[in-house]
Amino acid sequence: MTMATAEQQPWKDPVRIRALGTVAVLAGGNSAEREVSLRSGAAVLESLRRSGIDCIHVDPREDVLASFAARRPGFAFIALHGRGGEDGTMQGLLETCGIPYSGSGVLGSALAMDKWRSKQIWDRCGLPTPVSVHLREDTDWNAVATDTGFPLFVKPVHEGSSIGMSRVSDVAGLQKAWADAAAYDGEVMAERFVDGPEFTVAVLDGATLPVLRLETTRDFYDYEAKYQASDTRYLHPCGLEAAAEREISELALRAFDALGCRGWGRVDIMQDRDGGFWLLEANTIPGLTDHSLVPMAARHAGIDFDELVLRIIFAAGGDS
Fold first, then answer.
1. Catalytic residue positions?
2. Each residue's pLDDT tens digit, 180-211
3. What is the pTM of this model?
4. Which of 38, 81, 86, 286 has the fewest CB atoms lying closer than 10 Å?
């Protein structure tokens, strides 16, 4: 067997690691996912220190440019979730400052954060995604019910972590769900419910990690199930036959690529009762907390958290 070179595995090369200089870990921000972001950032900071890397925490609630000027980071690890960090705006700032960064570039970040436009792109690319409708205050709620049927999932277009999301089964519930979601975002969508198991596929540097199946006692995999519940189950092996697991992994890569995403991320997928797979959304900066799915999938691939963090850094793309 041919041994992998340092060029092929730069995360194992001490010279390449030292060449990173100071790494700024961006975490916190002003989105509804601030607390989760701070937890992700803290985990990354601890990991970088274990790897002997000089690092600083930068919270975009404060003066980001002043922090950059004071420490002159050689790299930015973005651990921001939600708007202001995951939507291309921070990526654009880093491009302007000439600082390389982790994860997808401006375009991929913006598209993946926008669930409505992600689905339009997937649909045009011939990739399966549930029927959806854009909701507004003047929406004909009865027409939505006729065109899409129930149950439906209503969600803010630009939020993550299932924030503002709810499952509805009648017209009265649909209008209330729109109002609840609109409190988080000016754009709201409803998506046809797929009756079947939920899977998530992590992507790392152009390849997929082991597929995980998610099971919760709640109505769906919501914020509490993701970050607070102790009875949420993450199954690996995921229960799919080998051919189906290859199919879902290939679908995740095609969906990720269609949005212009790169580096690392996660794609959430449902399977219907007939075995068909349906794309829900792509996440370009998934959580890195003790409840998070990408570190869990990485462990099943034999990648510990410290290696995962380094591999995310060396898989960095950006639009430059």
1. 33, 161, 227, 266, 268, 281, 283, 287
2. 999 888 899 999 999 999 999 999 999 999 99
3. 0.89
4. 38
